[in-house]
Amino acid sequence: MKFETRYKSHHNSSGVFSKYYQPKRLNEEILLNKLSEEPKDVPRVIYVHTPYCDKICSFCNLNREQLNGSLDSYAEYIADEFEKYGQYRYFKERPVDVIYFGGGTPTVYKNNQLVKILESIKKNIKLSEDYEFTLETTLHNLTDEKIETMNKYGVNRLSVGIQSFSTEGRKFYNRTYAKDETIARLKDLKDKFNGEVCVDIIYNYPDQKIEDVRSDARTVKELDLGSVSFYSLMVHEGSALSQDIKNDKIKLEDNLRKERELHNAFVEELTSDGDYYLLELTKIAKKGRDKYKYIKARSFGGDTFPIGVGAGGNVGEITIFRMKKEMSMFVEKNEHQQRLDRLTGLFQFSRVEKKIVENILLENEKKAFEKIIETLKKAHFIIESEDAYTLTEDGVFWGNNISREILVRLVEATLEK
Predict the structure, then answer these.
(1) Among positive and negative, which fits the CA dihedral 230, 233, 237, 241?
(2) Where are the alpha helices (DSSP H) in 223-273?
């Protein structure tokens, strides 16, 4: 087995089912009826999307737009959504494990708008004792007042979009502040914020050197950050970067060898002393610190209830997409799709326990899965032990391809029968 193109995100598997299954559309009444039932005992996430930024990264084409005017009406809308859904048994009778504010930039709200949203959560949502409450953020729009508000309302994790500590890299990504100022602000944030501070790093920008990613990794350790997400640079159609490439202002070299060297150097530098470990394919965490319950809940068969324009998630078999304030789409996933989703979610982690796989697959699927594993072992992507499948260094690098390959082959093997 040899992969020619590397998938850089777990989202590359998300559209596989549409090739094989005609989606079954549902109406909101079915979702509301489900929310009125006794909730199941599964991990539960609320994902809140804020599709606004006050500064756009060069590489980004996500569901967001440049902030232009007040967010009063959007903050009111988000607060009202918590009020609306908080009245159902789904939220009244069982606590939520994770709340995750993504974007866009959730800290783009003014403090009074942030208070309105967080007050509605406090009023309408019951959180578990060991909950995780994350806001994605940049450094430039955080104020002491906002940090104090987040502390007051129990936000206990921040994910800061750093992308690179290198001044050259930050300039390429259209980030605010050079290296020294970035580090100083992170130190200040750690002093003032009561929870865990985590960062994102994007590697493989033009002319980036091995020493650059090693320096980024050392800075993460020196700052004693809870975790770091790390991704290879992706060129998204519609981003400023894609336009610059079309206009020959920037040249990106499609070099898998270099990409792998940068990836492996970052992982090696950060994990070499044993304080940090590979939590999942694109996340390295400090031992005993960041748990990243958000990805674990999503990968291990939990519910993710979406709120906000651009948010997506699921409650059981019902997949939910929020397209506009007053427009959502609801699709049913059959039992087969749900099981295989859980299986490929497991392979977002470098070690997969066999007993969990066995509990997911039906007997007629296990032989097909074993064939896939044998192929992956021969390609030196996976090592099999008595109780687990473990990704090799190459397996981690190609992890999203492996996850997608398992999904495609299992679907096809099942449909052939």
Answers:
(1) positive
(2) 240-246, 256-271
Q: Are 169 and 142 in contact (CB under 8 A)?
A: no
pLDDT at 49: 96
Over residues 7-54, the pLDDT tens digits come to 888 776 666 777 777 889 999 999 999 999 999 999 999 999 999 887
What are the backbone dihedrals phi and psi of residue 113, each rounded to the nearest 5 degrees, phi first? Answer: -70, -40
| Amino acid in the structure at residue 144 | D
| Stated pTM of the model | 0.92
Burial class (CB in 10 A: 0-12, 13-18, 19+), 105: buried
What residue type is 58 in one-letter code? S
Coil, strand, or helix at residue 369? helix
Residue type, 95: P
Cα distance between residue 301 and residue 163, in whole Å: 30
How far is 309 from 88, CA to CA, in rounded Å? 21
pLDDT for 54 equals 77
Q: Are 384 and 333 in contact (CB under 8 A)?
A: no
Which residue type sits at 246?
K
The whole-number pLDDT of residue 67 equals 53
- Residue among 130, 125, 144 nearest 47 (CA): 125
Residue matched to tokens 């336009």: 243
Q: Which residues of the chain have pLDDT under 50?
A: 59-64, 66
- pLDDT of 414 reads 78
Task: Report the run of H or E that residue 50 belongs to, with start and end.
Answer: strand 44-50
Closest residue by Cα to residue 108 from 70, 82, 58: 70
Which runs of consecutive H residues, i.e. helices, occur in 89-237?
89-92, 111-124, 144-152, 167-172, 179-192, 210-222
Q: Pairing between strand 312-315 and 52-53?
A: unpaired
Q: Each residue of 88-99: pLDDT tens digit?
A: 999 999 999 999
- The predicted structure's pLDDT at residue 351: 96
Residue type at 66? Answer: Q
Q: Is the dihedral of CA 60, 62, 68, 71 positive or negative?
A: negative
At 382 the three-state DSSP class reads strand
Rounded-to-integer distance, Cα 192 and Cα 394, Å: 39
Inter-CA distances, 407 with 345, 381, 403, Å: 10, 16, 6
At residue 371, the 3 state secondary structure works out as helix
- d(CA 279, CA 293) in angstroms, rounded, equals 11
Which residues have a Cβ under 8 Å from the Cβ of 60 and sit 6 or more positions away? 53, 236, 239
Beta carbons of 219 and 160 less than 8 angstroms apart: no
